[in-house]
Write a structure and sequence with these properties.
Elements (H helix, E strand, L loop, with lengths): L1 H35 L11 E6 L1 H9 L15 H4 L8 H6 L2 E9 L9 H18 L4 E3 L3 H9 L3 E8 L8 H9 L2 E5 L21 H4 L8 H13 L2 E3 L5 H10 L4 E3 L16 H10 L2 E4 L3 H4 L9 H15 L4 E3 L19 H9 L8 H29 L29
Parallel strand pairs: 1-2, 2-4, 3-4, 4-5, 5-6, 6-7, 7-8, 8-9
Helix pairs in contact: 7-9, 10-11
Length: 425
């Protein structure tokens, strides 16, 4: 009997030991898998979403929006594009950079405000769509959060449209609605110029003249708040890059949906008025939004005695993570919108380098899940929430649209290109 008991005990011990060995192997494989996927491999698992690329404006300035002879496959041999100081993007480099989705930006200069900003913006939306149609094997038009995943599964770059600057809607909610119907999924409330209803970040620049500094504390007017609420109703992302500090606060205070900063960095590390103050980072976290870090050298490194590097960008990413949390940081490079990029992030092929460097960071440590959030899951979460708020408002709002008009007095003297509807002749 004792021999049988001993055999049973030995057998039981062997089974337990075997189970422990199997568990250890599985655990090691799991941890090894995470380590193996903790760098650039992340970009094969989830879509890398860049919040801002100004290629369409370069198409306007260099090609007059003509695509017939535009060889997007590889622009390194193009004499015009290769010598362009703000050109960092082509298909070859996008594929090398493992980009999963891109907000292509319909931007027109502030000098078009009160003139033909709407018409020019429509032309930029048009050229974005034509570019996508010209390269269907690599680009796919996307207008929903789920559409980003759909394009990613097809190994195409999900191509979304953002409009950069509230001057592009000419202070008209009807124009905002029509742009949404054309596929626009974010509006940056201002560019570098104030609109009649929102103040831009240059008012926070202490070196400005006294006349401009009188507007320092300005944010959103009542009409500006209505613009934000109409964007909530439509399901359009509210983008607060470029706006003044007070406009950020006003917009986050009034919005019913999470906001984004499509291409902004941390003010605490580089005190440029285009960057985001810590108090707003805290507000953004409470709001559920995301700050997509800008790579532009002058926004990530204020020390002009040395070149900006990928490590400066990482410092901004880590700062925003520290203040707002890992759920509220993303990527918004600003490629093709600026003329200087950090060493290590010279063009759109370099995203993997950034993620490899982050995977090597110990303070803080970036886990696989953290890197997935940074790459794109945070933006997708925000986008889905914006869509959910839209759907909820559609069921609860008594009036289907905001029909407010900008008060004429808010235009000041900028009325030459507007018809006076109250005129008798």
């Amino acid at each position: 009997m004792s021999k049988n008991i001993s055999r049973v005990c030995i057998l039981s011990s062997a089974v337990v030991l075997g189970a422990l060995v199997i568990f250890a192997i599985i655990l090691a494989a799991t941890l090894g898998g995470e380590e193996a996927a903790s760098g650039a491999d992340i970009l094969d698992i989830v879509p890398l979403i860049d919040g801002h690329n100004d290629l369409p404006f370069n198409l306007r300035t260099l090609n007059h929006n003509f695509l017939k002879n535009f060889t997007f496959e590889d622009l390194k041999n193009d004499p015009v594009w290769w010598n362009c100081s703000t050109c960092f993007t082509d298909l070859k480099r996008l594929l090398a950079g493992k980009l999963g989705a891109q907000f292509w930006v319909a931007y027109v200069p502030c000098k078009s405000q009160y003139k033909d900003a709407v018409e020019q913006t429509l032309e930029q939306i048009d050229v974005i769509k034509r570019l996508i149609q010209k390269y269907p094997d690599h680009l796919q038009l996307v207008t929903t959060a789920d559409g980003i995943w759909e394009a990613f599964r097809k190994k195409k770059i999900g191509s979304l449209i953002g409009v950069e600057g509230g001057h592009s809607i000419d202070s008209r909610l009807a124009v905002l609605r029509q742009m949404y119907d054309l596929g626009v999924r974010y509006l940056t409330l201002t560019h570098a110029c104030n609109t009649p209803w929102a103040r831009a970040s240059p008012v926070d620049n202490v070196s400005l003249t006294s006349d401009l500094n009188k507007e320092h504390h300005g944010g959103l007017t009542e009409f500006g708040k209505t613009v934000v609420l109409e964007m909530n109703r439509l399901g359009m992302l509210v983008d607060l890059s470029h706006v003044s500090h007070q406009t950020m606060i006003d917009a986050i205070s009034i919005t019913k949906s999470p906001v984004i900063f499509s291409h902004s960095s941390a003010y605490a590390l580089c005190n440029h008025h285009r960057n985001v103050h810590d108090d707003v980072l805290v507000m953004t976290a409470k709001n559920g939004g995301v700050v997509m870090v800008n790579f532009y050298s002058e926004f990530v490194q204020c020390n002009t005695t040395r070149n900006a590097t990928v490590d400066d960008v990482i410092a901004h990413i880590n700062h925003i993570r520290k203040v707002a949390g890992v759920n509220h940081v993303g990527i918004g490079s600003d490629y093709d919108g600026v003329d200087s990029m950090p060493v290590g992030l010279e063009d759109v092929s370099k995203y993997p380098h950034l993620f490899e460097r982050l995977a090597q960071t110990n303070e803080p440590r970036w886990s696989t899940e953290d890197l997935k959030k940074l790459a794109g899951l945070n933006l997708i979460r925000v986008f889905k929430e914006v869509e959910l708020v839209r759907d909820k408002l559609a069921k609860t709002m008594h009036e289907p649209h905001h029909e407010d008009l900008l008060p004429v007095k808010d235009l000041g003297s900028n009325t030459d290109c507007r018809t006076n509807l109250n005129a008798t002749s």
